[in-house]
Design the sequence.
């Protein structure tokens, strides 16, 4: 099983600041099969990025993804009030598919 | 607009069974693989199962293998999750999610709002 470890667990920032979220895999993951999701309480999770760096439909360009091998990063260039949420990385190259434990971005 | 609506959650005793449903609209359902994911209270997301567009090739993690069964009825645009021998640790919000391909590994581009399953005596 590929274990994904996200850091930090919580990121305390203000609107307008830059957020950098890390996702480290226990073994190499093809960048084609790494995604990021945003999840707010009581809502459906929302796909942000797929194949490491491709933005999903409707996702603003302040969100960007990068990385390869075992280290991946989600960057939010300037935080908007609606960006405060929990973010998960996911690998879907092998089963069991796995998610990281999440990074909470809070004000 | 793509919509996924889960139902069937509720309170069940340990050892009991429950069947979740997910009705999908706004797409040609048979063209997409579907997945169940859950979130236990205070925990992260856990992948449970995926089934191909034609009903092929279900897979499960060890935590639910032999107890949970995924299926679909393409004539009803509905995905199911049959859950047997339920345990307290199965308490979670259960989400259905659509994949972007018919088969094979792909991302989850649409999710439902979830249905709560509580396993308790």
Sequence:
């Amino acid at each position: 099983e590929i274990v994904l470890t996200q850091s930090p667990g919580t990121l305390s920032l203000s609107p307008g600041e830059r957020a950098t979220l890390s996702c480290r895999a226990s073994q190499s993951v093809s960048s084609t099969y790494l995604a990021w999701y945003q999840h707010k309480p009581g809502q459906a999770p929302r796909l942000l990025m797929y194949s490491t760096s491709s933005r999903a439909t409707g996702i603003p360009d302040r969100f960007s993804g990068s990385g390869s091998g075992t280290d991946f990063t989600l960057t939010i260039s300037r935080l908007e009030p609606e960006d405060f949420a929990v973010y998960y990385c996911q690998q879907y190259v092998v089963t069991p598919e796995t998610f990281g434990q999440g990074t909470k971005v809070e004000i | 607009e793509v919509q996924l609506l889960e139902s069937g959650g509720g309170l069940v005793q340990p050892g009991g069974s429950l069947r979740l449903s997910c009705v999908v609209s706004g797409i040609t359902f048979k063209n997409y693989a579907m997945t169940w994911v859950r979130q236990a209270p205070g925990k992260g997301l856990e992948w449970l199962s995926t089934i191909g567009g034609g009903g092929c090739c279900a897979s499960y993690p060890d935590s639910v293998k032999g107890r949970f069964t995924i299926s679909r009825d393409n004539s009803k645009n509905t995905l199911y999750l049959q859950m047997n021998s339920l345990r307290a640790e199965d308490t979670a919000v259960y989400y259905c999610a659509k994949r972007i391909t018919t088969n094979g590994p792909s991302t989850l581009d649409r999710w439902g709002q979830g249905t709560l399953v509580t396993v308790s005596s």
